[in-house]
Amino acid sequence: MKTIVHTTQQVYRQLINASSRPGHTENISEEVKNYSDFSDAALLAAMTLFDNEISFFSKDKTMRKELKVLTGGIPNKDHTTADFIISKAADLKKKYFREVMKGILISPEKSATLIIDLNSIGEGTEYSLTGPGIKDETNIKLSLDSSWMELRNEVCKEFPLGIDLVLTDKQNNLVIIPRTTKAEVK
Q: Which residues pair with 168 in a beta bridge?
């Protein structure tokens, strides 16, 4: 019998693999009852990362309710103080990048992570990724407008301050772009 604990353990391994290899695509093949219109990968990543001590912001009412019930996470009405922001690419706003926690020098870990559900990982704008965990360069195609990646690069220019991105798509692919990685349009 497979429980949610077994499922999140498997997803955790995939999150670790994706975070240690920026630009590497992981396919989240685990199944979950998903009542939102977000991908299973987005929901499972959130379920794995959230607990009852984190706060999250999402405009999507169904996703807020589902994550509160499944994780005990605290829905936050203010994106500026949330630990996580969960959004569809179509619903992104500049303030989700600019007006969020970016950490402080003595506590850079006090920053937000954006979980963005895209239409596709593997199609769209091609990005070149460089930085720790990447030998020379990794290329990845994302259906994410380049203006969002430029904004993210601007927010992350004062390392160790910045935000991390967890990108998912409808085919349940997942890519992590940490604040240490530079992403440029190829």
A: 117, 174
What one-character DSSP code corresponds to residue 22? T
Instruction: Record the tokens describing residue 164, joined without a space.
Output: 């991390």
Q: How confident is the model at residue 1 (pLDDT cuts 50, 70, 90)?
A: low
Beta bridge partners of 75: 56
90-110 pLDDT, tens digit per residue, is: 999 999 999 999 999 999 999
Query: Can you tell me whether residue 67 is helix, strand or coil?
Result: helix
pTM, full prediction: 0.94
Euclidean distance between CA atoms 170 and 109, whole angstroms: 29
* Separation between Cα atoms, residue 159 and residue 19, nearest integer Å: 17
The pLDDT, as a whole number, for residue 3 is 82
Nearest alpha-carbon partner for 98 in 157, 25, 39: 157
Domains of the chain: 4-185 (3.40.50.11310)
